[in-house]
Design a protein that fits this description.
The chain is an alpha+beta fold. The chain contains 4 helices and 6 strands, in the order E-E-H-E-E-E-E-H-H-H. The protein folds into 2 domains: about 70 residues, Alpha-Beta Plaits (2-Layer Sandwich); about 55 residues. The strands form 2 sheets. The protein has a 4-stranded antiparallel beta sheet with strand order 1-2-6-3, with helices on one face. A two-stranded antiparallel sheet has the order 4-5. GO terms for molecular function: structural constituent of ribosome; transferase activity. One of its GO terms (cellular component) is mitochondrial large ribosomal subunit. Belongs to the universal ribosomal protein uL23 family.
Length: about 150
C-alpha cells in the first residue's frame, strides 16, 4: 500500500522553552524558562509529545521583574516577569552540547563586520589591520572546509 501524505493535520508548537543549567538539581531534573501563559499540563504535554520524555512531576514559579531606575525620568520601573519550570523525568536528563557559534552561526563573520565598522569610524579610508586579515583567512578556510565536506557527502 502506498503512503499518503497530507491527510493528517500537523501542529507545530508555538512556544519556546529555554534550558537553564542548574547544578543544584538532581540527575533526572531539568529547569526551563517558559512563557507566562503555559501551565503545568502544557509543559508535560509538550515534553512528552515533542521529545518523547516521560515526565513525572512539574513545578513552576513566577519570578517578579527586576526593579530598575529610568535614566530619563528617575522613576522606578519593574521589568517583565519570568516563569521557571522544574521538570522531573523518569530517565536521567542530559543537557545538550553547546553549539559552536563561530562554525554554525557565522560568529567569524560577525567579528569581521564589527571590526570593519570600527575601522570605518576611525577615518574615511578603511585600512585592514593584521587581526582583520587573520579573521578573513579563518572565514575563508572554514568556508572551504564546509564546501569540501559537502562535496564529499554527495
Amino acid at each position: 500500500m502506498a503512503q499518503r501524505f497530507g491527510s493528517l493535520k500537523v501542529y507545530f508548537p508555538n512556544v519556546v522553552f529555554k534550558i537553564i543549567p542548574d547544578a543544584r538539581l538532581g540527575k533526572n531534573q531539568a529547569a526551563f524558562r517558559v512563557p507566562l501563559n503555559v501551565n503545568k499540563l502544557d509543559i508535560k504535554d509538550y515534553l512528552t509529545h515533542i521529545y518523547n520524555v516521560t515526565v513525572t512531576d512539574v513545578r513552576t514559579t513566577v519570578f517578579p521583574g527586576k526593579l530598575s531606575t529610568n535614566r530619563y525620568t528617575g522613576q522606578k520601573e519593574r521589568g517583565s516577569r519570568i516563569k521557571k519550570a522544574i521538570v522531573t523525568t523518569k530517565e536521567e536528563f542530559e543537557y545538550p552540547k553547546e553549539a559552536d557559534v563561530d562554525k554554525h552561526f557565522g560568529g567569524l563573520e560577525i567579528k569581521h563586520e564589527t571590526m570593519r565598522r570600527a575601522n570605518k569610524l576611525k577615518g574615511w579610508r578603511i585600512r585592514p589591520s593584521i587581526e582583520m586579515m587573520a579573521l578573513r583567512t579563518k572565514i575563508l578556510e572554514s568556508r572551504r572546509e564546509t564546501q569540501e565536506a559537502s562535496e564529499k557527502k554527495s
